[in-house]
Amino acid sequence: MPETPEQTWTIKQLLDWTTDFFSKSTMGNARLEAEVLLAEALACQRIELYTRFDEQPDPQRLTEFRAWVKRRAAGEPVAYLAGHREFYSLRFHVDPNVLIPRPETEHLVVAAVEFAKSLKCDPIRIIDVGTGSGCIAVTLATLIVNCKIAATDISQPALEIAKGNAAHHEVESKIHFFTGDLLQALPQGSSPVHLIVSNPPYIGKLELSTVDDQVKNHEPDIALFSGDHGTEIIERLINEAAQLLLPGGALMFETSPIIMDRCVALVENNQAYCDVRVIKDYSDLDRIVVATRNNN
Q: In this predicted model, what pLDDT tens digit does every residue of 121-150 receive, in sequence order?
């Protein structure tokens, strides 16, 4: 927005100007992004903005908001600027050490909860591989009363964020965190589990030119990219999970529609699994693979 000394700005004017500016300069939901940043600058809820339309923010908060608008226009994600992102109606702290939670991943949570309802055991033992912000593990811990979750990540800074999110949502007693590569992070002799979930890296480096600059330039490479073709880490996950799943247990992971056929083939070609199915996302794109550990 123009930094004209004599001009005063109301909340409504700030929202309208920023929405118009973002619609021309960014790829996201311009109005939502304007609301999120302004609410964060004013330390209020988004809904409160609409009851304070005629209010004029104090100069310090306006200066902070202006700086965020400039950084957003330069490509920095709103979630990192605000320091949080909503996932499954829960707020998660995020920073550039972790992938920003996305709505597509909520389908993984829904599938996991439905599977847990079918189990007659207490506790239900779950592993979240590559937990990042902890959005999957923490959400499952809030939704499944009788669960114990092991959450792994190769990034210690990511695990610290996940631990903080678990504490914020008061489920830290249900989740144990382990640093390391995929399921190798778990202690030797770990008990088999009923469910393994993961949103692993699944973008191939050969697809790098197709990745949005906002993602490529700001989100952690380690959470995005997997070899040349995007299936390298998923293939390891499929093989490692087979060793830790109980008979009748389930492996569920998110992937890209671009490599879905290859991911399904990797599971189907592994004799440890049966009943492989695919779940579509909100855009009707193939997104989640679900496979059952057979009884052999």
A: 999 999 999 999 999 999 999 999 999 999
Q: List Cβ neighbours of 105 (8 Å cut-off, separation of 6 or more).
A: 87, 135, 136, 199, 254
Residue 241: helix, strand or coil by DSSP? helix
- How high is the pLDDT of residue 6? 55
Q: Any idea of the CA torsion for 181, 182, 184, 188, to the nearest 10 degrees?
A: 130
Residue 74 maps to which CATH number?
1.10.8.10
How many domains is the chain built from? 2
Overall pTM > 0.70: yes
Complete DSSP assignment for 194-221: EEEEE----B-GGGGGGS-HHHHHHS-H
Cβ(203)–Cβ(212) below 8 Å = no
Report, in angstroms and rounded to the nearest whole number, the Rg of the chain calculated over CA atoms: 21
Domain boundary among 32, 47, 82: 82
8 Å CB contact between 34 and 19: yes
